[in-house]
Amino acid sequence: MFRRKAYDQMMEWKAKYSGSYACLLEGARRVGKTTIAENFARNEYKSFIKVDFANATDELMDVFRDIAKPDLFFLRLQAETEVTLYEHESVILFDEIQLYPKARQAIKYLVADGRYDYIETGSLISIKKNVRDIVIPSEEHRISVYPMDYEEFLWATGGNPEILRKLAELRTPVGNSTNRTLMRNFRTYLAVGGMPQAVEAYIEFNNMEEVDRVKREIVNLYYDDFKKVDASGRLSDIYRSVPSQLALKKKRFVISSATGKRKTQKDEERLFDLIDSKTVLPCYDVAQPETALEQTRIPDKYKLYLSDVGLFTSIIFNSSEEGHQDIYRRLLSDKQDSDLGYLYENAAAQMLTALGYRLYYYTWRNGGTHSYEIDFLVVRNGKVIPIEIKSSQIRNHKSIDEFSMTYSKHIGGPYIFSKKDFSKDGVLQYVPIYLMPFTMECVTGDAFK
Question: Of 144, 162, 194, at which residue does a domain stop?
Fold first, then answer.
Protein backbone atom coordinates (compact mmCIF):
# COMPACT_ATOMS: atom_id res chain seq x y z
CA MET A 1 0.00 0.00 0.00
CA PHE A 2 1.16 3.53 -0.73
CA ARG A 3 1.73 5.84 2.20
CA ARG A 4 -1.28 8.18 2.41
CA LYS A 5 -1.94 11.20 4.57
CA ALA A 6 -5.57 10.17 5.09
CA TYR A 7 -4.28 7.22 7.12
CA ASP A 8 -2.74 9.64 9.63
CA GLN A 9 -6.04 11.52 9.82
CA MET A 10 -7.79 8.24 10.56
CA MET A 11 -5.33 7.58 13.39
CA GLU A 12 -6.38 10.90 14.90
CA TRP A 13 -10.07 9.96 14.50
CA LYS A 14 -9.52 6.62 16.24
CA ALA A 15 -7.66 8.24 19.14
CA LYS A 16 -10.07 11.14 19.69
CA TYR A 17 -13.45 10.60 18.09
CA SER A 18 -14.19 6.94 17.31
CA GLY A 19 -16.40 6.51 20.36
CA SER A 20 -18.72 9.28 19.21
CA TYR A 21 -18.37 9.36 15.42
CA ALA A 22 -18.05 7.01 12.49
CA CYS A 23 -15.22 7.84 10.11
CA LEU A 24 -16.47 8.81 6.66
CA LEU A 25 -13.91 8.74 3.84
CA GLU A 26 -15.35 10.63 0.91
CA GLY A 27 -13.86 11.41 -2.46
CA ALA A 28 -14.00 10.62 -6.14
CA ARG A 29 -13.85 7.10 -7.50
CA ARG A 30 -10.45 5.40 -7.61
CA VAL A 31 -8.62 7.80 -5.28
CA GLY A 32 -7.84 4.97 -2.85
CA LYS A 33 -10.56 5.25 -0.18
CA THR A 34 -11.26 1.53 0.11
CA THR A 35 -7.58 0.56 0.14
CA ILE A 36 -6.84 3.07 2.89
CA ALA A 37 -9.85 1.94 4.93
CA GLU A 38 -9.06 -1.77 4.59
CA ASN A 39 -5.42 -1.35 5.54
CA PHE A 40 -6.37 0.81 8.50
CA ALA A 41 -8.91 -1.75 9.69
CA ARG A 42 -6.42 -4.59 9.26
CA ASN A 43 -3.55 -2.81 11.01
CA GLU A 44 -5.33 -0.97 13.82
CA TYR A 45 -8.00 -3.45 14.99
CA LYS A 46 -8.17 -7.03 16.24
CA SER A 47 -10.75 -7.87 13.56
CA PHE A 48 -12.93 -6.17 10.99
CA ILE A 49 -15.87 -6.89 8.75
CA LYS A 50 -16.12 -5.27 5.34
CA VAL A 51 -19.51 -4.87 3.73
CA ASP A 52 -19.13 -3.87 0.09
CA PHE A 53 -22.52 -2.57 -1.00
CA ALA A 54 -21.38 -2.64 -4.62
CA ASN A 55 -20.82 -6.40 -4.48
CA ALA A 56 -22.79 -7.78 -1.54
CA THR A 57 -24.60 -11.12 -1.73
CA ASP A 58 -28.34 -11.31 -1.27
CA GLU A 59 -27.74 -13.25 1.95
CA LEU A 60 -25.56 -10.48 3.38
CA MET A 61 -27.99 -7.77 2.36
CA ASP A 62 -30.77 -9.68 4.09
CA VAL A 63 -28.86 -9.20 7.37
CA PHE A 64 -29.56 -5.48 7.14
CA ARG A 65 -33.26 -6.07 7.66
CA ASP A 66 -32.35 -6.42 11.35
CA ILE A 67 -30.13 -3.33 11.58
CA ALA A 68 -32.64 -1.73 13.96
CA LYS A 69 -32.07 -4.71 16.31
CA PRO A 70 -28.35 -4.41 17.07
CA ASP A 71 -27.95 -7.68 19.01
CA LEU A 72 -29.49 -9.74 16.22
CA PHE A 73 -27.81 -7.67 13.50
CA PHE A 74 -24.31 -8.22 14.92
CA LEU A 75 -24.91 -11.95 15.42
CA ARG A 76 -26.17 -12.44 11.87
CA LEU A 77 -23.38 -10.28 10.43
CA GLN A 78 -20.73 -12.40 12.15
CA ALA A 79 -22.41 -15.63 11.09
CA GLU A 80 -22.70 -14.53 7.46
CA THR A 81 -19.13 -13.23 7.16
CA GLU A 82 -17.53 -15.83 9.48
CA VAL A 83 -15.64 -13.04 11.25
CA THR A 84 -15.69 -12.64 15.02
CA LEU A 85 -16.22 -9.15 16.37
CA TYR A 86 -14.63 -8.08 19.65
CA GLU A 87 -16.19 -5.28 21.66
CA HIS A 88 -14.10 -2.08 21.50
CA GLU A 89 -11.48 -3.88 19.40
CA SER A 90 -13.25 -4.36 16.07
CA VAL A 91 -14.43 -2.12 13.27
CA ILE A 92 -17.15 -2.55 10.66
CA LEU A 93 -16.38 -1.09 7.24
CA PHE A 94 -19.28 -0.01 5.04
CA ASP A 95 -17.81 0.36 1.54
CA GLU A 96 -19.64 2.40 -1.15
CA ILE A 97 -22.26 3.25 1.44
CA GLN A 98 -24.04 5.63 -0.91
CA LEU A 99 -25.47 2.53 -2.61
CA TYR A 100 -27.38 1.62 0.57
CA PRO A 101 -28.48 4.88 2.24
CA LYS A 102 -30.37 3.14 5.05
CA ALA A 103 -27.11 1.76 6.42
CA ARG A 104 -25.75 5.29 6.52
CA GLN A 105 -28.87 6.49 8.31
CA ALA A 106 -28.39 3.74 10.93
CA ILE A 107 -24.89 5.00 11.78
CA LYS A 108 -26.39 7.25 14.46
CA TYR A 109 -27.73 4.25 16.36
CA LEU A 110 -24.79 1.96 15.71
CA VAL A 111 -22.35 4.54 17.06
CA ALA A 112 -24.57 5.11 20.09
CA ASP A 113 -24.57 1.35 20.74
CA GLY A 114 -20.84 1.72 21.43
CA ARG A 115 -19.62 -1.83 20.90
CA TYR A 116 -17.67 -1.31 17.66
CA ASP A 117 -16.15 1.40 15.51
CA TYR A 118 -17.40 2.22 12.01
CA ILE A 119 -15.73 3.36 8.81
CA GLU A 120 -17.71 4.43 5.76
CA THR A 121 -16.43 5.06 2.25
CA GLY A 122 -18.39 6.64 -0.54
CA SER A 123 -18.18 8.14 -3.99
CA LEU A 124 -20.68 10.71 -5.31
CA ILE A 125 -21.80 10.43 -1.70
CA SER A 126 -23.50 13.76 -1.20
CA ILE A 127 -25.49 13.88 -4.41
CA LYS A 128 -29.10 14.54 -3.48
CA LYS A 129 -30.29 11.45 -5.34
CA ASN A 130 -28.50 9.23 -2.84
CA VAL A 131 -29.52 10.92 0.41
CA ARG A 132 -32.87 12.57 -0.20
CA ASP A 133 -34.87 9.80 1.53
CA ILE A 134 -32.74 9.48 4.68
CA VAL A 135 -31.76 11.51 7.70
CA ILE A 136 -28.04 12.19 7.24
CA PRO A 137 -26.33 11.31 10.52
CA SER A 138 -24.43 14.00 12.37
CA GLU A 139 -22.25 11.31 13.94
CA GLU A 140 -19.76 11.29 11.05
CA HIS A 141 -16.17 12.49 11.17
CA ARG A 142 -15.50 13.35 7.53
CA ILE A 143 -12.11 12.91 5.91
CA SER A 144 -11.68 14.02 2.31
CA VAL A 145 -9.52 11.69 0.24
CA TYR A 146 -7.95 13.28 -2.81
CA PRO A 147 -5.68 11.85 -5.49
CA MET A 148 -2.12 11.51 -4.23
CA ASP A 149 -0.56 14.93 -3.73
CA TYR A 150 2.99 15.65 -4.82
CA GLU A 151 4.49 14.62 -1.50
CA GLU A 152 2.60 11.30 -1.56
CA PHE A 153 3.72 10.79 -5.16
CA LEU A 154 7.34 11.27 -4.12
CA TRP A 155 6.91 8.79 -1.27
CA ALA A 156 5.54 6.25 -3.74
CA THR A 157 8.22 6.74 -6.40
CA GLY A 158 11.25 6.83 -4.14
CA GLY A 159 11.70 10.60 -3.91
CA ASN A 160 12.61 12.49 -0.75
CA PRO A 161 10.12 15.29 -0.07
CA GLU A 162 12.00 16.31 3.09
CA ILE A 163 14.73 17.74 0.85
CA LEU A 164 12.12 19.91 -0.87
CA ARG A 165 10.67 20.95 2.47
CA LYS A 166 14.10 22.11 3.63
CA LEU A 167 14.68 23.96 0.36
CA ALA A 168 11.35 25.74 0.84
CA GLU A 169 12.42 26.82 4.30
CA LEU A 170 15.82 28.08 3.09
CA ARG A 171 14.36 30.08 0.15
CA THR A 172 17.67 30.23 -1.70
CA PRO A 173 18.47 29.35 -5.33
CA VAL A 174 19.41 25.73 -5.99
CA GLY A 175 21.26 26.32 -9.27
CA ASN A 176 20.27 25.60 -12.88
CA SER A 177 21.28 21.93 -12.94
CA THR A 178 19.48 20.96 -9.75
CA ASN A 179 16.44 23.04 -10.69
CA ARG A 180 16.20 21.25 -14.06
CA THR A 181 16.33 17.88 -12.29
CA LEU A 182 13.66 18.81 -9.76
CA MET A 183 11.45 20.30 -12.47
CA ARG A 184 11.78 17.12 -14.51
CA ASN A 185 10.61 15.14 -11.47
CA PHE A 186 7.64 17.47 -11.05
CA ARG A 187 6.69 17.19 -14.71
CA THR A 188 6.56 13.43 -14.22
CA TYR A 189 3.85 14.11 -11.65
CA LEU A 190 2.01 16.28 -14.19
CA ALA A 191 2.13 13.36 -16.62
CA VAL A 192 1.21 10.55 -14.24
CA GLY A 193 -0.99 12.36 -11.75
CA GLY A 194 -2.03 11.07 -8.37
CA MET A 195 -4.59 8.34 -9.05
CA PRO A 196 -3.13 5.33 -7.20
CA GLN A 197 -3.69 2.92 -10.10
CA ALA A 198 -1.85 5.25 -12.49
CA VAL A 199 1.03 5.65 -10.04
CA GLU A 200 1.18 1.89 -9.58
CA ALA A 201 1.30 1.40 -13.36
CA TYR A 202 4.10 3.96 -13.66
CA ILE A 203 6.16 2.20 -10.98
CA GLU A 204 5.54 -1.29 -12.38
CA PHE A 205 5.91 -0.66 -16.11
CA ASN A 206 7.75 2.69 -16.43
CA ASN A 207 5.76 3.11 -19.63
CA MET A 208 3.57 6.14 -20.23
CA GLU A 209 1.34 4.35 -22.73
CA GLU A 210 0.34 1.92 -19.98
CA VAL A 211 -0.13 4.78 -17.52
CA ASP A 212 -2.29 6.63 -20.03
CA ARG A 213 -4.39 3.51 -20.63
CA VAL A 214 -5.10 3.25 -16.89
CA LYS A 215 -6.04 6.92 -16.66
CA ARG A 216 -8.39 6.68 -19.62
CA GLU A 217 -10.13 3.73 -18.00
CA ILE A 218 -10.72 5.89 -14.92
CA VAL A 219 -12.05 8.76 -17.05
CA ASN A 220 -14.43 6.36 -18.82
CA LEU A 221 -15.56 5.07 -15.42
CA TYR A 222 -16.37 8.65 -14.44
CA TYR A 223 -18.38 9.12 -17.62
CA ASP A 224 -20.35 5.97 -16.80
CA ASP A 225 -21.02 7.29 -13.29
CA PHE A 226 -22.15 10.64 -14.66
CA LYS A 227 -24.60 8.94 -17.02
CA LYS A 228 -26.20 7.20 -14.03
CA VAL A 229 -26.83 10.62 -12.51
CA ASP A 230 -27.62 12.47 -15.75
CA ALA A 231 -28.64 10.38 -18.73
CA SER A 232 -28.57 13.41 -21.04
CA GLY A 233 -24.78 13.32 -21.20
CA ARG A 234 -24.46 17.01 -20.29
CA LEU A 235 -22.77 16.24 -16.99
CA SER A 236 -20.06 14.36 -18.88
CA ASP A 237 -19.78 17.28 -21.33
CA ILE A 238 -19.21 19.72 -18.46
CA TYR A 239 -16.47 17.53 -16.98
CA ARG A 240 -14.82 16.95 -20.36
CA SER A 241 -14.79 20.69 -21.05
CA VAL A 242 -12.76 21.67 -17.96
CA PRO A 243 -9.26 21.23 -19.46
CA SER A 244 -10.09 22.91 -22.76
CA GLN A 245 -11.64 25.97 -21.09
CA LEU A 246 -8.53 26.38 -18.94
CA ALA A 247 -6.32 25.98 -21.99
CA LEU A 248 -8.28 28.79 -23.69
CA LYS A 249 -7.53 31.00 -20.65
CA LYS A 250 -11.17 31.84 -20.02
CA LYS A 251 -11.86 34.16 -17.09
CA ARG A 252 -14.69 31.91 -15.93
CA PHE A 253 -16.16 28.52 -16.70
CA VAL A 254 -18.99 28.75 -19.25
CA ILE A 255 -21.50 25.91 -19.07
CA SER A 256 -23.01 26.70 -22.48
CA SER A 257 -19.57 26.32 -24.05
CA ALA A 258 -19.39 22.85 -22.52
CA THR A 259 -22.84 21.65 -23.54
CA GLY A 260 -23.22 23.54 -26.82
CA LYS A 261 -26.66 24.70 -25.68
CA ARG A 262 -28.18 27.59 -23.78
CA LYS A 263 -27.62 27.33 -20.03
CA THR A 264 -30.62 26.09 -18.02
CA GLN A 265 -31.51 25.72 -14.35
CA LYS A 266 -30.92 22.00 -14.75
CA ASP A 267 -27.36 22.75 -15.84
CA GLU A 268 -26.77 24.50 -12.51
CA GLU A 269 -27.97 21.36 -10.73
CA ARG A 270 -25.60 19.31 -12.87
CA LEU A 271 -22.75 21.58 -11.82
CA PHE A 272 -23.55 21.02 -8.13
CA ASP A 273 -23.65 17.27 -8.75
CA LEU A 274 -20.27 17.44 -10.43
CA ILE A 275 -18.74 19.38 -7.54
CA ASP A 276 -20.28 16.92 -5.08
CA SER A 277 -18.66 14.05 -6.96
CA LYS A 278 -15.23 15.45 -5.96
CA THR A 279 -13.98 14.99 -9.52
CA VAL A 280 -13.60 18.76 -10.00
CA LEU A 281 -12.34 21.60 -7.82
CA PRO A 282 -14.32 24.87 -7.96
CA CYS A 283 -12.45 28.17 -7.71
CA TYR A 284 -14.65 31.25 -7.14
CA ASP A 285 -14.06 34.84 -8.10
CA VAL A 286 -14.44 37.27 -5.20
CA ALA A 287 -15.87 40.78 -5.17
CA GLN A 288 -13.60 42.06 -2.38
CA PRO A 289 -10.19 40.38 -2.05
CA GLU A 290 -9.89 40.88 1.68
CA THR A 291 -9.62 38.30 4.45
CA ALA A 292 -13.28 37.17 4.42
CA LEU A 293 -13.06 35.70 0.92
CA GLU A 294 -15.97 33.30 1.35
CA GLN A 295 -18.32 36.14 2.24
CA THR A 296 -17.66 37.99 -1.03
CA ARG A 297 -17.33 35.08 -3.44
CA ILE A 298 -19.43 35.39 -6.58
CA PRO A 299 -21.46 32.14 -6.79
CA ASP A 300 -22.05 32.27 -10.54
CA LYS A 301 -18.51 33.25 -11.50
CA TYR A 302 -16.04 30.43 -11.10
CA LYS A 303 -13.40 28.32 -12.73
CA LEU A 304 -13.21 24.54 -12.57
CA TYR A 305 -10.11 22.39 -12.23
CA LEU A 306 -9.89 18.62 -12.36
CA SER A 307 -9.16 16.94 -9.05
CA ASP A 308 -6.25 15.09 -10.69
CA VAL A 309 -3.75 16.70 -13.06
CA GLY A 310 -2.91 13.33 -14.60
CA LEU A 311 -6.50 12.88 -15.76
CA PHE A 312 -6.38 16.46 -17.01
CA THR A 313 -3.38 15.55 -19.19
CA SER A 314 -5.14 12.52 -20.64
CA ILE A 315 -8.39 14.34 -21.40
CA ILE A 316 -6.96 17.43 -23.06
CA PHE A 317 -4.74 15.42 -25.37
CA ASN A 318 -7.40 12.87 -26.23
CA SER A 319 -7.84 14.03 -29.81
CA SER A 320 -5.25 11.70 -31.31
CA GLU A 321 -2.85 8.93 -30.39
CA GLU A 322 0.04 11.03 -31.66
CA GLY A 323 -1.09 14.00 -29.58
CA HIS A 324 -1.03 12.26 -26.23
CA GLN A 325 2.30 10.56 -26.95
CA ASP A 326 3.79 13.96 -27.77
CA ILE A 327 2.67 15.55 -24.51
CA TYR A 328 4.39 12.82 -22.51
CA ARG A 329 7.59 13.26 -24.48
CA ARG A 330 7.50 16.99 -23.79
CA LEU A 331 6.71 16.62 -20.10
CA LEU A 332 9.40 14.03 -19.45
CA SER A 333 12.15 15.95 -21.23
CA ASP A 334 13.71 19.37 -20.76
CA LYS A 335 11.94 20.70 -23.84
CA GLN A 336 10.43 24.14 -23.38
CA ASP A 337 6.80 23.98 -22.33
CA SER A 338 5.74 27.64 -22.36
CA ASP A 339 2.29 26.73 -23.69
CA LEU A 340 1.49 24.31 -20.87
CA GLY A 341 0.67 26.89 -18.21
CA TYR A 342 -2.81 25.42 -17.73
CA LEU A 343 -1.23 22.16 -16.54
CA TYR A 344 0.77 24.03 -13.92
CA GLU A 345 -2.36 25.93 -12.90
CA ASN A 346 -4.41 22.77 -12.45
CA ALA A 347 -1.59 21.19 -10.45
CA ALA A 348 -1.48 24.29 -8.23
CA ALA A 349 -5.23 24.07 -7.59
CA GLN A 350 -4.82 20.42 -6.67
CA MET A 351 -1.90 21.12 -4.31
CA LEU A 352 -3.67 24.01 -2.55
CA THR A 353 -6.79 21.88 -2.07
CA ALA A 354 -4.74 19.04 -0.59
CA LEU A 355 -3.33 21.54 1.92
CA GLY A 356 -6.86 22.42 3.03
CA TYR A 357 -7.24 25.75 1.22
CA ARG A 358 -10.47 26.73 -0.50
CA LEU A 359 -9.88 28.09 -3.97
CA TYR A 360 -10.54 31.73 -4.87
CA TYR A 361 -9.32 34.08 -7.60
CA TYR A 362 -9.81 37.74 -8.43
CA THR A 363 -10.40 39.65 -11.66
CA TRP A 364 -10.79 43.40 -12.14
CA ARG A 365 -10.39 46.28 -14.56
CA ASN A 366 -8.19 49.20 -13.58
CA GLY A 367 -9.49 51.88 -15.91
CA GLY A 368 -9.61 51.50 -19.66
CA THR A 369 -10.28 48.04 -21.05
CA HIS A 370 -7.34 46.10 -19.60
CA SER A 371 -8.32 43.15 -17.41
CA TYR A 372 -6.21 41.88 -14.53
CA GLU A 373 -6.35 38.53 -12.80
CA ILE A 374 -4.79 36.88 -9.74
CA ASP A 375 -4.82 33.11 -10.20
CA PHE A 376 -5.31 32.18 -6.54
CA LEU A 377 -5.93 33.93 -3.23
CA VAL A 378 -5.41 32.19 0.10
CA VAL A 379 -5.66 33.53 3.64
CA ARG A 380 -2.97 32.90 6.24
CA ASN A 381 -2.72 34.58 9.65
CA GLY A 382 -5.21 37.27 8.72
CA LYS A 383 -3.48 38.21 5.46
CA VAL A 384 -4.51 37.53 1.86
CA ILE A 385 -1.67 35.95 -0.10
CA PRO A 386 -1.87 36.48 -3.89
CA ILE A 387 -0.48 33.70 -6.06
CA GLU A 388 0.24 33.62 -9.77
CA ILE A 389 1.20 30.52 -11.75
CA LYS A 390 3.43 30.88 -14.79
CA SER A 391 5.21 28.47 -17.10
CA SER A 392 7.31 31.24 -18.64
CA GLN A 393 7.73 35.04 -18.77
CA ILE A 394 7.92 35.41 -15.01
CA ARG A 395 9.07 39.02 -15.26
CA ASN A 396 5.70 40.05 -16.69
CA HIS A 397 3.61 40.38 -13.52
CA LYS A 398 1.60 43.56 -13.84
CA SER A 399 -1.51 41.99 -12.27
CA ILE A 400 0.20 41.02 -9.03
CA ASP A 401 1.97 44.40 -8.89
CA GLU A 402 -1.29 46.32 -9.30
CA PHE A 403 -3.02 44.07 -6.78
CA SER A 404 -0.23 44.51 -4.22
CA MET A 405 -0.37 48.31 -4.48
CA THR A 406 -4.16 48.50 -4.28
CA TYR A 407 -4.61 46.09 -1.36
CA SER A 408 -1.32 46.58 0.47
CA LYS A 409 -3.04 46.78 3.87
CA HIS A 410 -4.59 43.35 3.51
CA ILE A 411 -2.00 41.20 1.77
CA GLY A 412 0.96 39.11 2.78
CA GLY A 413 3.96 38.32 0.63
CA PRO A 414 2.94 37.74 -3.01
CA TYR A 415 4.23 34.66 -4.82
CA ILE A 416 4.87 33.66 -8.41
CA PHE A 417 5.29 29.91 -8.85
CA SER A 418 6.92 28.78 -12.08
CA LYS A 419 9.62 26.49 -13.46
CA LYS A 420 12.30 29.08 -12.61
CA ASP A 421 14.69 28.97 -9.65
CA PHE A 422 14.30 31.04 -6.49
CA SER A 423 14.63 34.83 -6.69
CA LYS A 424 13.10 37.95 -5.13
CA ASP A 425 11.95 41.34 -6.38
CA GLY A 426 11.24 43.41 -3.29
CA VAL A 427 8.57 41.47 -1.38
CA LEU A 428 7.57 39.48 -4.48
CA GLN A 429 8.99 35.96 -4.30
CA TYR A 430 9.63 33.71 -7.30
CA VAL A 431 9.48 30.07 -6.23
CA PRO A 432 9.87 26.85 -8.28
CA ILE A 433 6.45 25.23 -8.58
CA TYR A 434 7.69 21.89 -7.27
CA LEU A 435 8.15 23.67 -3.93
CA MET A 436 4.64 25.10 -3.84
CA PRO A 437 3.10 22.66 -1.31
CA PHE A 438 6.09 22.94 1.01
CA THR A 439 6.24 26.72 0.69
CA MET A 440 2.54 27.11 1.44
CA GLU A 441 2.97 24.99 4.57
CA CYS A 442 5.28 27.58 6.08
CA VAL A 443 3.99 30.92 4.78
CA THR A 444 3.25 33.32 7.62
CA GLY A 445 1.32 36.09 5.88
CA ASP A 446 4.17 38.45 6.71
CA ALA A 447 5.13 40.28 3.52
CA PHE A 448 8.56 41.08 4.85
CA LYS A 449 9.61 37.76 6.34
Answer: 144
Q: How confident is the model over 194-250, as pLDDT tens digits? A: 999 999 999 999 999 999 999 999 999 999 999 999 999 999 999 999 999 999 988
Let me know: does 98 contact 130? Beta carbons within 8 Å.
Answer: yes
CA distance from start to end of the chain: 39
What gap in Å lies between CA 303 and CA 283, rounded to an integer? 5
Q: Are 181 and 421 in contact (CB under 8 A)?
A: no
Tell whether 249 and 324 lie within a shared domain.
yes
249 with 352, same domain? yes
Which amino acid is residue 433, in one-letter code? Answer: I
- Which structural domain, as residue segments, surrounds residue 92? 5-144
Tens of pLDDT, residue by residue over 84-141, are 999 999 999 999 999 999 999 999 999 999 999 999 999 887 766 677 778 888 999 9
Please name which of 194, 168, 188, 247 lies closest in space to residue 432, comparing C-alpha atoms.
168
- Whether 318 and 346 share a structural domain: yes
